[in-house]
Write a structure and sequence with these properties.
42% of the residues lie in helices and 18% in strands. It contains ten helices and eight strands.
Length: 270
């Protein structure tokens, strides 16, 4: 657990977990969390990943234990991608496998396109590619957050995020976890998401890409995901059973195993 002063306005928190045998070489996986989360969101993945890989979990600019951002912060995909690269540079990690969930996957795809020499493979789970496709929803969320706070927004939107079969205690944990996000960060970030469009990035990603979604995803139907996935030259789509949006949280073990299989199939080819 450590922090890095990436820019004057950002002291970025990150965690490095590594349970592989110290006498053998092993590679690195960089995990990018979603909106209103932190690197802690990956807890269900860690027993699978960290046994054989060095796992880096940063808290994105503004979120988790990183410096909160003001509401009028000028959010930039390039700046966010470069924040993550700064952490990897600091750790002297040249190449890595990249995984992102929800909007963290959006950032992961942009990072893979912007820094192709650094990324071995990229996996994204339930990630949007064009913010304006759900622009009305994001704009409505701003009103909810202004009236009910981040916790109130998380509570109102959690059922679609985790699905009706997720345990009640787990839903409450995720509500409180996401509710810790600074309201200034959340309002500014949500307001900026409709402007995000990584359609061109999809055409520029050359590393192997894995796209994971659920069969009955309530926010992004499989046909919609397949339409943009097929634009990527070297990609594959994995559709998992279930009706949650946040499959990385509702099926962490299955997702982690699928990602490890994908990584191992492409090891040594990049």
């Amino acid at each position: 657990m450590a922090t890095l002063q990436v820019t004057p306005d950002l002291n970025m928190y990150y965690d490095v977990t590594d349970f592989a045998e110290p006498w053998r070489e092993h590679e690195t996986i960089l995990l990018l969390h979603g909106n209103a989360e932190s690197g802690e969101a990956w807890f269900g993945w860690m027993p699978e990943l960290a046994r054989n890989y060095r796992v880096v979990r940063p808290d994105m600019r503004g979120f988790g234990r990183s410096t909160p951002m003001p509401r009028d912060h000028a959010w930039s995909l390039d700046r966010i991608a470069d924040d993550f690269i700064a952490v990897m540079d600091h750790l002297k990690i040249d190449r890595f496998y990249l995984v992102g969930a929800k909007v963290g996957g959006t950032m992961a795809l942009h990072l893979a396109a912007r820094h192709p020499s650094r990324v071995n493979t990229v996996t994204v789970l339930s990630s949007p590619t064009r913010g304006e496709d759900a622009g009305d929803r994001y704009r409505a969320w701003v009103d909810v957050i202004e009236k009910s706070g981040v916790v109130g927004w998380a509570r109102e939107t959690m059922t679609k995020r985790l699905g009706s079969s997720f345990p009640a205690a787990g839903i409450e944990w995720w509500i409180n976890f996401m509710g810790r996000t600074a309201s200034s960060t959340q309002l500014g970030f949500i307001g900026a998401v409709p402007k995000v469009d990584i359609s061109q990035d999809l055409l520029n990603i050359r590393c192997p890409a894995q796209i994971i979604t659920t069969q009955d995803n309530p926010l992004y139907p499989v046909d919609v995901v397949r339409a943009w996935q097929q634009k990527m030259a070297n990609s594959e789509l994995l559709v998992m059973p279930g009706a949650s949006y946040h499959v990385a949280a509702t099926a962490p073990l299955q997702c982690a195993q699928a990602v490890l299989d994908f990584i191992r199939r492409h090891a040594g080819k990049v």
